[in-house]
Amino acid sequence: MSEPRGPDSTRRLPVMEKTAGGGPGRSAPSEEDALLPTLDGAEDGSGRFWSARRIPAAVLALLLLAATGLLLYDVAAVRADRRGMAWRRSLTRELAERPLDDIWVLVGAGVAAALGLWLFVLAVTPGLRDVLPMRSPHPDVRAGLHRNAVAMVLRDRATEVSGVQSVQVRAGRRKARVRAVSHFRELDDVRADLDAVLADGVRGLGLARRPVLSVRVARPGRKG
Known about the structure:
alpha+beta; Alpha-Beta Plaits; three-stranded antiparallel beta sheet; three-stranded mixed beta sheet; 5 helices; elongated
């Protein structure tokens, strides 16, 4: 995903070339690639994307609207010389008569505290843990890559290694776990090739914070 912030936020994408064997090769370098920030340094300050929290905000707004409307209706009814609702009179009596160490008072206080803590955590944390921020050549453009896309790219790169039968990739914010099954070649040779290919693949993703690779290679299990 990306967030364009200016009119001049696009650039020409590099063209994919084919290798001598006919397979897809790496992107052809262009003059603009030399202007991109290096991926070998520290983070460039690109933080995580913030979630809009639409569902919690909508639920909280509806609950507050319903409670406020019901309370205002009861207050207006009392002002109009009508009897107040039974629930408000009962709640007022219970709050006035029950001691502070009563079990129901403690339970209500605990629920209110937990709800407040949950809302506070939602307010101060960015969310969108599945979107990994990418480096950007322009300060007015922010880009992100979903974890599933990262896993798919690394899986495709791993399947190109000779001897790999199947691959499972789980990409996280800090670590990418790769589990490969090799049906021929030495496991050490397959893992060395996987380390090199996947490290190059992670660099090519352009992430602001590259995940650490954890690669395991095993033989296929016996059938039956």
